[in-house]
Amino acid sequence: MDNENGSILIITILILMLITIMCLSAARVSITERQISANALLYQRTYFAAESGIEHAKKLIEIPFVKANANSVYSENPANWTFALNGSMKNMKPANDPDGDEIGQYDPEYQGAVLIAGQDIGGIKYTVSLWNNNDNGTYQNDMDGLIRLRSDAIDSRGTRTSIQVLLHGGLYGSQSAELTAQAGGGVCNANNSNDKNAMNDFSQQISLAN
Question: What is the number of structural domains in the chain?
């Protein structure tokens, strides 16, 4: 009888141990899944913040780009981003290349021209920098209308996401003096030089593509 009681006790202990191991394993899996979900959420948030940085930067440089390249439309020269690299743009840190080998490259020690620094959005900070691609120019002289734009976003836990694009800028338009058919001064609206009212709004069209 004692042997049977001893066997039952041992079996009971083994079953309890097995149940305990299963519960611990389930808890560990649950914790791991929650950590994975939390990490995925943190990554999503920093990714969207980095994307916001890219769009923010494009809006900031749109009008200065048009102003800096207005004459290029009339002289048929390609537009360029030199104004954003050499410090001409207000509140923008100019590009620098102390060791002379970073043109067209990104390096943590070489941020290029810093356009936005530490912009906070929902507890996540992004910094946006731009630098010249390898186009036979210098780090402050753009030759082909292409520029590298990078947004680095980081949250308080250290989760980091970076987005980098190659941005192309071009202007399209013409001088109003060339459009004699809309010169005005006439008595009718027949799409010729005798038009009653002159057309005087010939705004340049900007194209920023990445």
Answer: 1
Closest CA to 85 of 55, 109, 65: 65
Tallying the residues shown for the chain, one arrives at 210
DSSP state of 200: -
Nearest CA to 140 among 91, 102, 90, 107? 102
- On whether the pTM is more than 0.85, the answer is no
Q: What letters, b where the CB count within 10 A reaches 16 and e where it falls short, cover 137-152?
A: bbbbbbbbbbbbbbbb
DSSP state for residue 150 in the 8-state scheme: E
C-beta neighbour count of 53 within 10 angstroms: 28
Range of 83's domain? 45-209
Distance CA 203, CA 176 (A): 10
- Torsion angle, CA of 182/186/187/190, rounded to 10 degrees? -40
Give me the phi and psi of 103, to 5 degrees please: -65, 125
Q: Which helix (H) or strand (E) holds 115?
A: strand 113-121
Q: Please check whether residue 123 lies inside any domain of the structure.
A: yes
Residue 58 forms part of a structural domain: yes
Q: What is the pLDDT of residues 151-209, one digit of tens each?
A: 999 998 888 899 999 998 877 655 444 445 455 555 554 545 455 566 565 555 555 55
**33 in a structural domain:** no
